[in-house]
Each structure stands twice: as C-alpha cells, then as structure tokens.
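To: structure subgroup
Subject: Chain for Friday's discussion

All,

I'm putting the inputs and outputs inline so they're searchable in the archive.
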Amino acid sequence: MSVITELIRTEADGSISFGNYELKSKTKVSDFEHNGDLYKVKTFCEITKLERNGMFAYESVPGTSVTGFKTTEEGVSFTVEGLGDAQIIVGVNDDTEYALSMNGQKVDEYETDLSGKLVFSVELEAGKSVEISIQKVK
C-alpha cells in the first residue's frame, strides 16, 4: 500500500481510498461523488479527515492513507498506513456497541455515545498496513 496521490479515489470493489501522509501542507478535495454521496477529504502529514455529505466520517492524527474504506449497516472496514502510531476516530451509529479488530484479531468492544464517534489508537510503521474492522456487536 502507498499514499493516495489523487487524495481520494473509487476502487474496483466499490470502496474508496483516501489520504496522503507524505504531504507537508494541507491539501483537500471537495465534492468527490461516490455512490450518490459527496465526500470531502483534507490530508497532510499532521491530519487526515474525511466527511461524507457534510458529516464526519474519519479522522487520524497524524495523517494516514486509507484504502478499501467501506461502510455498511453493520460497520466500517478499511486498511490504514502511516509513518507512526495514530489516533483514529471513525463516525458510526450513536449509542451502539462495536467490536474492533486489527489484522483479524479482536482488540476490544466499545460503546459509542450520542456523538457516534469511535476513538482508538493503532500502532503503525512506515511501509506496513493494518486492517481495521469495526462491526456492531449482536
């Protein structure tokens, strides 16, 4: 995996990829259409942020590159890469319990509050990606 040079793109499997943690200055793309939704991405070495239809979807500090970002009624999945450890916030449903897995291993379960944001940290190192899965607990 590598940075997304076009900042955001649609993948063949219907997911999106976004983010470029190598940029030294903030760069953004607005009004990127995908499956009837409008996305906006802001990214550089310090932060990567994604909005869908004007609503929060993803943020990482420092910046990251995300591939295969897919949302369903049951949760969110994606692969993330960066230069070092990152704090990630993902917008999901409010007041809902989710199971977080990294590279296929369950990490923990979290319950969102009224903001519907799930916050977690991931250990990253250059050139290695981590698969993230956030799924509703049934």
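Points worth raising on Friday:
The two ends are 32 Å apart (CA to CA).
The longest strand covers residues 27-34.

D.
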